Structure formats: C-alpha cells, structure tokens
Amino acid sequence: MLTINGEPAATATGTTILALLTARHTPIEHLVVEVNGQIIHHTDFATTTLQTDDQVEIITFVGGGR
Amino acid sequence: MHTPPVIQGQAPDQVYTQMKARNVTASTAKLSAAHVAIAGAGGLGSNIAIALARIGVGTLTLVDFDVIELSNLNRQQYKLSQVGMPKVTALKQNLQEFNPFITIHAYQEKLTPATISKYLSSADIICEAFDAPQEKAMLLEAVGTQFPAKPLVMATGMAGIHSANTITTKQLRPNLYIAGDGTSTGAKGLMAPRVMIAAGHEANMITRLILGKTTI
C-alpha cells in the first residue's frame, strides 16, 4: 500500500510527484518530498512516478523566522 | 579555544570556569568541541546563536545576507544602535560580549544549493533559521542530498499569539528535526515570545545532539 505521511493513500501507481502535489494547495517550492527516505529534487518532480508500496513523505514549510 | 586577555580584572581561565559552573555536568568539554552552523540570523538564528554561545558551543558559523532594520527589533536580538549593520556582523559582536571564549565565523552571504557546501560542510550540526518557506525547503533538499549524515535542525510555524504549547519538536527521520507548530505563517505577525520558543526548541535539540542524545 502506498502511503503519504504515514497514511494509506489511494494515489494510483504511475502518478508523478508533480501531479500528486498539484492536487494539493501548497506552493510546490514550499515542499520537500521524500520517497522511501530519499529526497526527490524539485527538478525531478515531473519525471518521478510513484510505485506500489512507496512511502511518500511530504514536508511542508510555512514562513516566519528570519 | 580562543582565549581573550584579562577579563574584568580576572584571569581568563578563572572567568571561563565560573561561566560554566552551572552547565549540566560533563557537558562543557563536548559543547566546546562542537561546531554548529546557523543558516539565517533573524528571529530564530539570533536567539539560537545566543543560547549556544552562552553555554559555550565552541565554534559557531553564522550565514545571513541581510542588514538589520527597525522592523526586526520586535523579535530579533539586535539593538537600535545596530540598525543598518549586517546581521552577522552585529550578532558576532553581541555574542563576543556574552562569551569571548568561542570562535565565530560570520559570512554575509545568501545561501544557495551551490554555496551550502562552502559554508556549512565543516559544521557538525546544521541549524535552519530562515524566514521564507521556499528557503527552508531549499536548505532541506540541499543538505539532505549533499550531507545526509549531518544532523539538520529546522523550524516551521511560530507566528501569531497561539499557545506556546502548540510548538513542538518532531523527528521526521534520523538526522532531521523540525520544531514549530507547523502551520502558523508570518503573515499573522511575528513576535519575540513565540519566535523565541521555536528558537529554544531548536537550540535545545542541538544541545541534546551535541551531548549524544538523538531523541526529541
């Protein structure tokens, strides 16, 4: 089962990271995506597809601090 | 260890010993041997740097491109007299007054994926203290791929006047710690008390890591 942030997800195998993120409402540049513990570069979002049993971690940042 | 001349009429080694008298047992030597790089010298970075300097983290690298503005003073550890100065220059000046026994490298530079290695690679622990969310994401992506074995301590969500108790430290995986409430953005206003809580979370996690504790 493919999981996103620890939760089972109905995302279809073969979906690109970009398509997955576009469905969310956070600007892509505010996110870091890890698949099975490996960071996926933003430049690879459009070409990286999700596979069965992938563990996806989407880390979202908000502003304020510096 | 950097050793200043006579301080307040006392020999430096006596001053040093007394300054560390209330540190946690057996922590001072480890703290003195540690090198922490702080990316950003604003509300988070200035507070984190002061905390780490006070307990005697031996080497601090400070990187920030910005200069101090009046609007920074409601939360950042600078003085009216320092407005207009580069933040890293003013922060180094302030830190040296709190603890003259540490080594401080200050760089007025903007960190990019290409320059992260140059400024951050020699540190044992990297601390993210940026403002903009895209900068936070950029740092995680770059550090996580260039230095996956180096602990990275970050923060997200410390704006507004929400309860202090909503700010926590989470460990997302080995070597990645993120403090904050995760949701409150700077558009709500940023004020010293809550920014200092997030900064305290980061500084305490860094202290724990230096002293061998990798759990939150």
TrEMBL record, chain A:
It comes from the Bacteria. InterPro entries: Beta-grasp_dom_sf, Mopterin_synth/thiamin_S_b, Thi_S, ThiS/MoaD-like. This is Thiamine biosynthesis protein ThiS. It comes from Levilactobacillus namurensis DSM 19117.
From TrEMBL, chain B:
InterPro entries: ThiF/MoeB/HesA (IPR045886), ThiF_fam2 (IPR012729), ThiF_NAD_FAD-bd (IPR000594), Ubiquitin-activating_enz (IPR035985). It holds the Pfam family ThiF. SUPFAM superfamilies: Activating enzymes of the ubiquitin-like proteins (SSF69572). GO terms for biological process: cyclic threonylcarbamoyladenosine biosynthetic process. GO terms for molecular function: tRNA threonylcarbamoyladenosine dehydratase; ubiquitin-like modifier activating enzyme activity. Residues 26-213 form the THIF-type NAD/FAD binding fold domain. PANTHER family: THIF PROTEIN, TRNA THREONYLCARBAMOYLADENOSINE DEHYDRATASE. This is Thiamine biosynthesis protein ThiF.
